Amino acid sequence: MMPLQLSVWSKWSLIFISALLYFYIGYVLDRSNFSILIVAFSVLFIVYYLQVKRAENNSIFGFQLVGILLRLIFLLSIPKLSDDYFRFIWDGHLLSNGLNPFHALPTDVALDFTNKDALLDGMNSPNYYTVYPPLAQWIYGISAYLSPQSIFGSIISMRAIILLAEIGNIMLLPRLLGVLKMDVKNALWYILNPLVIVELTGNLHFEGIVIFFFLLSLFLLIRSRFNLAMISWAFSAATKLIPIFLMPILISKFGLKKSIQMGIVMLAIFIILWVPFLDARMFSNFLESINLYYATFEFNASIYYLVRWIGYQTEGYNIIATAGSWLSKIALLGVFVLLINPKNKSWGSAVKSILLALTLYYALALIIHPWYITFLVFFACLTPYRYAYLWSFLAILSYWAYSNTEFNENFILIALEYLLVFTFMIYEILNQNKQLRAAKVAE
Question: Which class for 188: exposed (0-12), middle (13-18), buried (19 or more C-beta within 10 A)?
């Protein structure tokens, strides 16, 4: 039975409701008001589900325009759900003044510039060296250079670049699905996703740029434009490091010899992008921050919290330093094994393996901020799996931590989040395997 299509009036009503809620989240909402936040996101996700499920293939272009317009609502807003932008702008001021942002802790910087105190006060990590790769740093530097006197101006500059990347994602994703001979309507799961819209365009997280370059790389690989694909892959990894860990997929897809050739191109471009920042001091400080990330911070974790609880029962203290190190090693090994699977010959199998590998990586991580899930949402569009869309909604539960001054997490909500996500994920994997076995029998 064909699903009942929404009337024109209903479609415009849903778009209007979404626009109002995005405006409220962008300009009014206080993240400490968890009850309002969860209600707003719940309504947005209901509207999102209705729009995607009832969309027709010939309406894709219209929804692409809607996706762009909904993101434009945030153009003049100041991020409400994240304060990371203070560090982005801080690093940008250092770079625009000729300083290496990897060289000093914010609390040790002697340089005086406009809004220095405001940026320091708003920053959530003034006692840690920056961990953001070179392409991200250049974007921060451009935003600070274009608006040296105004935090708001720097926000607008960064958002404009993220918007351009997101427009690229919106326009290119349906084309990639078409090349892969998949339903182009799947692109709407990313284009209209509330978490993607709020966290990337609204809260200035650079996953949108990472996704753009990785999406472009996949498109170029399918077109056999290998060198250009690796340049784009390098730009993706130079924005956030995650794409580096996905390179083993090249081995199973193209063989060892070809993957080594492509890897050399990718790593050469990646290193070139680092050259302006490279010296022994930068390398030491960057590694120190990466190590601290895996041994100090924890937020919205799943398996790690169980391991931590066991540690308290057996050792009597938080075993984060040991557990974080081991879990990261296990995660990277698991990612490698999943990605070099010889069955990853087709693009469909390869993308499914990437999605599952990233899921494993996040399942073992100590920190899962909501915007991390946007990468999974993108890859899910290229697979039969839908659990990432559920996760993109349930990740909002982690914002409970900001509803109290101590930033304590609600472990009941965290348990609910992962119980639902992992249960649905296991169901989907088992069901997909069952369908594949049935198809082989039918042949």
Answer: buried
Q: What's the pTM?
A: 0.94
CB contact at 8 A, 261 and 294: no
**CA-to-CA distance for 97 and 295, rounded, in angstroms?**
32
Per-residue pLDDT tens digits for 324-354: 889 999 999 999 999 999 889 899 999 999 9
Closest CA to 35 of 400, 369, 299, 405: 400
Quick count: other Cβ atoms within 10 Å of Cβ 438? 9
Which ranges in 381-410 belong to alpha helices (H)? 387-394
Which letter does DSSP use for residue 412 in this model? H
| 3-class secondary-structure state, position 315 | helix
Give the CA-trace dihedral at 359, 361, 407, 414, to 10 degrees.
Answer: 40
Distance CA 235, CA 209 (A): 9
Q: Which domain holds residue 203?
A: 8-442
The one-character DSSP state at 317 is S
Give domain status of residue 3, yes or no: no
Residue-wise pLDDT for 8-22, tens only, equals 778 889 999 999 999
Condensed to tens digits (0 to 9), the pLDDT of residues 37-82 reads 999 999 999 999 999 998 887 789 999 999 999 999 999 999 999 9
The structure tokens 């308290």 sit at 312
How far apart (Å, rounded) are the C-alpha atoms in residues 430 and 432? Answer: 5
Residue 96 lies in a domain: yes
Which of these, 74, 80, 76, 71, lies nearest to 34 by C-alpha position?
Answer: 80
**Ramachandran quadrant class, 49 (left: phi over 0; alpha: psi -120 to 50; beta: rest):** alpha
- Two tokens at 192? 């209209």
Pairwise CA distance, residues 205 & 85, whole Å: 8
Total number of domains in the chain: 1
Half-sphere exposure of 415 (CA within 13 A, CB side): 4
Secondary structure (DSSP) of 102-150: TSS-GGG-----TTHHHHHHH-S-TTS-----HHHHHHHHHHHHH-TT-
Q: Is residue 2 part of a domain?
A: no
Residue 1 lies in a domain: no
Q: Where are the alpha helices (DSSP H) in 32-83?
A: 34-53, 60-72
